[in-house]
Write a structure and sequence with these properties.
alpha/beta, 7 strands, 258 residues
Length: 258
């Protein structure tokens, strides 16, 4: 599937939200002007959260996805491009697996990306938190394409750094499944392959399952990410402090409301 077709599928999804409804283990709430999202293509996405303008947009997409380009919906926002090739992202290979209905390979590819994320993308994680620690960057949104994997993992690290309970972090991550209609996305992608590309899918039902896997999130994936980070670095907190160099107390001072 080409970039423009995928973009058309993704931009209608409603995976834009902030963290203001989430409390830390000690009861503080999170300020509302830090936003996670899928593709930011309309003003309505942030204005629904009472923000008509954004100062900063952190774009996690690689160049092949259109990452780093000017955002027409928010032309005055500064774009910080932090491309993350999640799981050594290879769109051509993924398209082949989708057409062949390789559900297990798709699942394994995504799981592997979660397993190695904290090691593979230290520079990007460090840059992300550096942006967060500058209050002048707010209101800020960070996004990838679907707003589920790369965005979901950075959101999880942000929440864990603030002292949000693990179960609440997982709940925020899993909320994506309520906001992206994976079945509808799979059906549209399937139709694109059949009509636009004139591709005959050898195993149509398995291809549908593979498409759905691409567009949903699984609790096992985020748990693998946390477990691997704990195993490799002692804890998520140790990872953030020692590997990323994050000033956690400063982050809390900026983002937590009493």
């Amino acid at each position: 599937m080409d970039r423009n077709s995928l973009k058309e599928l993704l931009k209608k999804q409603k995976n834009t939200r902030n963290f203001s409804h989430i409390s830390t283990r000690s009861g503080e709430r999170i300020r509302p002007d830090i936003i996670r999202s899928n593709l930011l293509t309309t003003k309505e996405q942030a204005s629904a959260l009472n923000y008509n303008t954004l100062k900063t947009i952190v774009d996690l997409r690689i160049g092949e996805e259109g990452g780093g380009s000017k955002n027409s919906a928010y032309p005055d926002a500064h774009i910080d491009h932090l491309p993350i090739a999640f799981g050594n992202l290879d769109l051509k290979k993924i398209s082949e697996w989708l057409m062949m209905g390789e559900v297990e390979k798709i699942d394994s590819f995504i799981e592997s990306g979660y397993r190695t994320f904290s090691s593979d993308f230290k520079h990007e994680v460090r840059s992300f938190f550096s942006l967060l620690l500058n209050k002048d960057n707010l209101p800020m949104a960070f996004h990838c394409s679907a707003g589920k994997d790369r965005t979901g993992l950075l959101a999880a690290l942000f929440l864990l750094a603030l002292g949000v309970l693990k179960d609440d972090v997982i709940n925020d991550y899993m909320e994506t499944n309520n906001r992206i209609d994976a079945r509808e996305m799979a059906e549209k992608a399937n139709e694109y392959f059949r009509s636009t590309l004139s591709v005959k899918l050898l195993y149509p039902e398995r291809s549908m399952q593979a498409f759905e896997t691409i567009f949903l999130v699984k609790q096992s994936w985020i748990e693998i990410f946390m477990e691997e980070t704990n195993e490799r670095f002692g804890s998520v907190e140790s990872y953030l402090k020692e590997e990323i160099g994050l000033d956690i107390e400063m982050l809390k001072k900026i983002y937590l409301l009493k």
